[in-house]
Structures are given as structure tokens and as C-alpha cells.
Write the C-alpha cells for this entry.
Amino acid sequence: MKRLIVAFIAAIGICQAAAKLNVISATEDLAAIAGEVGGDRITVEAIARGYQDSHFVEPKPSFLLKLQKADLLLLVGLQLEIGWLPPLITQSRNSKIQVGANGYLDMSQFCEILEIPTGPVTRAQGDVHPLGNPHYWLNPENGRRIAKALQTKFSELRPDDTAVFAQREADFEKRLTEAEKRWDAQMAPFRGRKVITYHRSWPNFCERFGLVVVDYVEPKPGIPPTPSHTLELINTMKRENIKLVLVEPYFDLRAPNSIAQAVGGSVAVLMPSVGGVKEITDYFKLFDYDINLLTTTFAKVK
Ligand SMILES: [Zn+2]
């Protein structure tokens, strides 16, 4: 009997040592990169779905259950999730993931951030992005930085698996570098093309792949289209021979369609996130999808 108890206690010890790091991510993009680095040594789940507008997610009780059990919370930061995540963190009462705790990881601190406002920020500048553009994961270089930061954090929380995380991170970077060669080759004929985008979701993507964003369907970030701004856009596009309007999947297509129609151009519904459509199951497929769609549409509009 005594031996049995000893064995039982030993078994509990092993279970605890081997307990997988439970990672909860605000978005599917960060979850996808976490999965690349963590492999089977972690469990990872996203809160917002990739087809949702991550600025505006309706909180659900199930989110709270996920947060209560998390060892580590990943968020995009720069106020992307400010409308829905902070109260959930507080209500979870999970001390590991409270702001400033060891299991609270704002990934923006590791990335290159564009459009950081220089002067004072007022509501007149729009509803979102007061700290800089939070759509930074759409440049693979930032994907690389996110992976590296996750490797460090995972190793800190699960030191026994340090070697596994290092190997997986290196492998992710290698595959990303190979994929970038392919994406660059696909985009090469279209470098320097001017586009209009609905929301400011694409500065990192466009800078990386050589597209020029001239204006936005939203008059200001988070503000819906207005007739006067739409008319201005049509004039700009005619004057500068711009044919393509890029739209995120959760916006009303009426304004973009009428703009494209007025200039004999086209609308492309680009995916800003993993999970935006079913086939985008990982970080690589996100760029595959968007770059395939872009190059096809560019070829069509000339
Ligand atoms: Zn935004």
C-alpha cells in the first residue's frame, strides 16, 4: 500500500512537470505563430475568430472560461483589443494574466510599428489606432519577431522544453524565409502599384511587398464611409489611375463596389487574419491567400 502511494505521488509529480503550457491568444494570427514555436509542448487557443473585426469583438462567457485557465495570454496590443479584452482579463481573476503579470504578453513591444502619431491624439483623428498601427503581423518580418519573443517567453515558463522551442523557432524562420522568396517573386511584377484600402489594415503588408496605399474608404480609422469622401476617392483614383480597392472581409461592400465601378476597377476582399476563410489555417497560408488574390486581381485590372 505504501509503495502504491509513493508511486501515485510520483505520478502526480510527473504530470505536473509535463503539464502543457496553456496559451490563450487574443487573435488567431498570434495563436498560429505560437503553435509553430510551441508545437505539442503547449496548447493554444484564440479568442477572436479570424473573420471577425478584431477591434470590435462581442465578449462571450466562453472567453472568460478560456482566460481563467490560461498560463499565458498573448495580445496584439496598441489598443486593438481595448473594446473587449480588458474587462475579460479582470473578470477572469487569473493572477497569471493580469496586466503586468508574467503571463501577460503584449506582442507589439517586439515589432516594428508604423503610423505612430507624433502630435497629441484626439477623437477627431478617428476611433482607433491612437498608439500606432496595430495590424503589424501582416509583415513576415514582424511574424519572425513574434516567434522569437514567444520562444523566449515559452522557455522562461517551461525551461525543460527550451531546446524544443529553439529548434521549432529556427525551423519556422527557415520556412518563412523560403516562403518570402516565393511571395516576392509573385509580387515582383506589381511592385509600386497604387491601391486604396478600406481600413488602415495594410501598411505593414504594403510596405513589405512594395504597394503604395494612396487613401482609404474610411475617412478616418474606424469611421464609416461618407458620400463626400467617397467622391474624393473616385476623383483621386481617376487622376492617379488607381484600379484596386482592398477590403477586409467584415466591411460592407457597397461603398467599395461603387467606387471600383466608377473607375472601371476592381474590389479584392483580402484576409487580414488566419481563419479569415477556412483554407487559411496557418500564418503561411495567410500570405499565400492574399498574394494569390492580389496578383490575380492586378493581372485582371491591368
Ligand atoms: Zn485597425
Q: What stands out?
A: The radius of gyration is 22 Å. The CA atoms of residues 164 and 203 lie 34 Å apart.
